Amino acid sequence: MKNELLKIGPFTVYGYGLMIAVGILAAYFTGERRAKKRGLPYEHVFNLVVWCVLGGFLGAKILYWITEWKSIVTNPGFLGDTLTDGFVVFGGIIGGILTAYVYCRIKNLDFLRFFDTLMPSVALAQGFGRIGCLLAGCCYGKETNSAFSITFHDSGFAPNGVALIPTQIYSSILDFIHYGILLFILKKQKKDGETAAAYLIFYSAGRFVLEFFRGDLARGSVGALSTSQFISLFTFVAGIVLLLVFSENARDGKTKRDMSA
Description:
Layout: E1 4-8, E2 11-14, H1 15-37, H2 45-67, H3 69-74, H4 78-81, H5 89-107, H6 111-136, E3 150-151, E4 163-164, H7 167-188, H8 194-210, E5 221-222, E6 225-226, H9 227-260
Antiparallel strand pairs: 1-2, 3-4, 5-6
Helix pairs in contact: 1-2, 1-6, 2-5, 6-7, 6-8, 7-8, 8-9
């Protein structure tokens, strides 16, 4: 795959950046449309997307630096050298969610309803983002003898000339499927927060499994698990806990209404 798609004078259009931009736009347009259908103040979706993107990139960068703390201690200049590369997706998810929460609190918006409404679009954006990974050659898989493989010839990340498991393709497909599942859950949900909790559960489980096929082992590890697998355990549990809390709150609310009837 080739990351440099087009050159116009001194400007270069990179596949990774283009797919990130497509993902953000797709998240915005689908999220705004969904907010309208659910009767939410959709005029806030644009600002939410912008702030969540900024918060997400900041969170992804901070978590990356945390995982690379040994490199920073050895060479403080590592911080400046990695300003434009090196991000951890889970940090982006956490940063984006926290930013959305703060924004909703400041604007006095119903965070849970926006949380449910926009999380499917996050999965959609991630699907496009993984296509960008495929074009750039990052987030690559292990070497394989399988017929279904991918070989890079001009990548600055993946080993070139070697057949690899196409983890980027698998990830992208799963993200798009995740998007469809979350839309179905949102349509059927009976309590606020259910779709958002489902996002955390499904994404964490899928990411945990896919990590076994990743070949970029330099990303760090915690014991026998990769850093992302280790974080997945906590986000998976967090999703389960949130689902139980939201269910309990819904039952409490129903009980109080029944008693007052």
